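Chain particulars:
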Amino acid sequence: MRQDNDKATIAHQKAVAASVLERLKTLDENAILAGGAPGDWRRGIPARDLDFYIQGERLWFPQQKLEQLGFEVESAFDYSSQNRRIFTTKAYTWNPNIDGVKNLTIDGVECQFIFVTVPVVDLIPKFAMNTSQIWWDGKDSWVTHDYRMFMKYGAVYPTGEVYSREEEFMQKTRMKFKDYKFFTNKEEFAVYAIDLDNHGALKIG
């Protein structure tokens, strides 16, 4: 029963995401859904929310333009033109590439529009953890090399320099992926992978 409910929730979330991306691509043809949701779906887990990435400063997409596409949004952070730092409840802390975050709920699904100042796909490899480096363009899922290492070895490790790496965020990642192998850095994982590939089995404790 739980599995059937999860499948139905994921199907609903995907339908919402596809509808949103279809509209967002009229603003940015490269708009994507990235981060937690595509990865959660791949593991058969409903996403907590949907994070859509759109290239362009938020001033390029005024409230009226978003409302014309049927989106009722509200700001998710306080913005300071003096230091251009982002304050939000999620892990976007001090990300210089994010210019705006908008919150909205669509058909019961929590969503965020994240406006970035670089091409969205260029931002993915800079995500803090390899488990976040997966995105969906409305039809197909795409992953980075580091995400493939998560798929192949079940390895979770920090990768990017943009998002906060504070202990609270790292602990949250550990808890979410507690059944996977956690590495404190990419170099530590590389040693593990080489030994595993060379010997087939690796004594770890």
